């Protein structure tokens, strides 16, 4: 292939890259998307949050997704023992979308990728980034290798790294750093459910807390398949012996709620294990580039924040690049890092407090406090930038405070 020049090189054709490239296309900015794999391809992160619907709508990608008739996600259910905590996205503190979807990511990502191609975005699959260099202006020259071994170069004024778990620029520019979250791992697969329960029971996404630190996700899809996976401390996952399928079968026994429903179903693929998955970086941007989605920071999947951060950061980066290329001044530290990290910090608090047990105390305390529940529901819907919500603005202390009040109440009762 011949060398090419564009305004923006986007690495990765997942949700972040598609939202970014679509926004740029709509605003007259040329881009080139390179994707190492071929679509459709399997990837984890199958539960969305209502907040990302804003991004699909703004980028002009909503209609193609609506047409797919994915399973509606109008809330989420958390189970612990015999206590059920239901969150309804229609009853949340922050105005916004009251539903989203549960999606097989192979189909979801492929739909988005086909749509940006249809819109005229230049996308190349099976093309891998092998090297990158930046000049003093932040303009880049990126070496791309095709599957047949040929190489070409892309010159760009800006790079958006939406490579997800590939973390291309973090690897090439030595930007990785350890996550502050505990070392957890996940094991997961899909099953076909020909006799799925009728009504909401058969379609609702559920997080079954099987121990204080480990939980099972159950995510039904509209195609009749269901994603199931356990998350917990790495030593918990490693304590089970045998093949991944044997481990998964044994682990299902600790879910008293779902064991009978799932025990006789065949796995559609050998369960995958991802160990110590939480990631972080030294910085979210540099001169001539921005990191988005999982390329920047990946938290725990317990609150399904992955795709939402991917699309939030993808469209934010695209907006700022559009301003900069149109001659406007952009404060990347404030408008990108500062903004994105506000949301990351809120979710990091909730993930951390989930595993300390404080958030679980609030979820499973009875009677429920409806105001607290609506405010937390807005967080779980992805509206983590709304500082009218006390559980956003004061996230770093409010969860602890409410949990402490519950402890004091329990002490009085006992």
How would you summarize this macromolecular structure in one to three sentences?
The chain has 414 residues and is α/β, with parallel strands linked by helices. Helices cover 36% and strands 24% of the residues.
Overview of the structural elements:
It comes from Aequorivita sublithincola (strain DSM 14238 / LMG 21431 / ACAM 643 / 9-3). This is Flavin-dependent dehydrogenase. By secondary structure, the chain is an alpha/beta fold. The chain folds into two domains: about 220 residues, 3-Layer(bba) Sandwich (FAD/NAD(P)-binding domain); about 90 residues, D-Amino Acid Oxidase, Chain A, domain 2 (2-Layer Sandwich). Helices cover about 35% and strands about 25% of the residues. The chain is built from 14 helices and 19 strands. Strands 1, 2, 7, 8, 9, 10, 18 and 19 form an eight-stranded mixed beta sheet that branches. Strands 5-4-13-14-15-12-16 form a seven-stranded mixed beta sheet, sandwiched between helices. A hairpin with a 2-residue loop joins strand 18 and strand 19. Helix 1 runs parallel beside helix 2, helix 9 runs antiparallel to helix 10 and helix 11 crosses helix 14. It is globular, with a radius of gyration of 22 Å. About 45% of the residues are buried.
């Amino acid at each position: 292939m011949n060398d090419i020049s564009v305004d923006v090189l986007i690495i990765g054709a997942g949700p972040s890259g598609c939202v970014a490239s679509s926004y740029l296309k709509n605003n007259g900015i040329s881009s080139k998307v390179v994707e190492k794999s071929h679509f459709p391809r399997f990837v984890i992160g199958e539960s969305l949050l209502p907040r990302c619907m804003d991004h699909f709508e703004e980028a002009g990608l909503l209609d193609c997704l609506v047409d797919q008739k994915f399973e509606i996600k109008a809330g989420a259910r958390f189970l612990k023992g015999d206590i059920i905590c239901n969150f309804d996205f229609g009853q949340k503190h922050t105005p916004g979308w009251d539903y989203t979807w549960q999606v097989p990511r192979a189909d979801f990502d492929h739909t988005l990728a086909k749509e940006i191609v249809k819109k005229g975005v230049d996308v190349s699959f099976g093309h891998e980034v092998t090297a990158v260099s930046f000049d003093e202006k932040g303009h880049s020259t990126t070496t791309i290798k095709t599957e047949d071994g040929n190489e070409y170069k892309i010159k760009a004024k800006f790079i958006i790294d939406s490579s997800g778990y590939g973390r291309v620029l973090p690897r090439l520019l030595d930007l990785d750093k350890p996550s502050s979250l505990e070392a957890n791992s996940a094991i997961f697969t899909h099953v076909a459910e020909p006799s799925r329960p009728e009504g909401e029971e058969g379609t609702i996404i559920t997080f079954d807390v099987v121990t204080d630190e480990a939980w099972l996700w159950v995510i039904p899809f509209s195609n009749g398949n269901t994603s199931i996976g356990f998350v917990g401390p790495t030593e918990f996952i490693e304590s089970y012996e045998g093949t991944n399928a044997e481990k998964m079968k044994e682990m299902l026994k600790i879910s008293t709620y779902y064991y009978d429903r799932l025990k006789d179903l065949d796995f559609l693929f050998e369960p995958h294990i991802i160990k110590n998955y939480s990631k972080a970086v030294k910085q979210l941007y540099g001169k001539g580039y921005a990191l988005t989605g999982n390329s920047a920071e990946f938290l725990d999947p317990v609150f399904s924040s992955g795709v939402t951060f991917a699309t939030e950061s993808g469209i934010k980066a695209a907006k700022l690049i559009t301003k900069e290329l149109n001659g406007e001044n952009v404060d990347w530290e404030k408008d990108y890092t500062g903004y994105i990290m506000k949301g990351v910090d809120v979710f990091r608090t909730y993930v951390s407090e989930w595993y300390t047990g404080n958030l679980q105390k609030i979820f499973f305390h009875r009677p429920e406090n409806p105001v607290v529940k609506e405010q937390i529901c807005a967080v779980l819907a992805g509206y983590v930038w709304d500082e009218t919500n006390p559980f956003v603005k004061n996230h770093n202390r409010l969860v602890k405070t409410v949990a402490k009040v519950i402890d004091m109440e329990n002490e009085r009762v006992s």
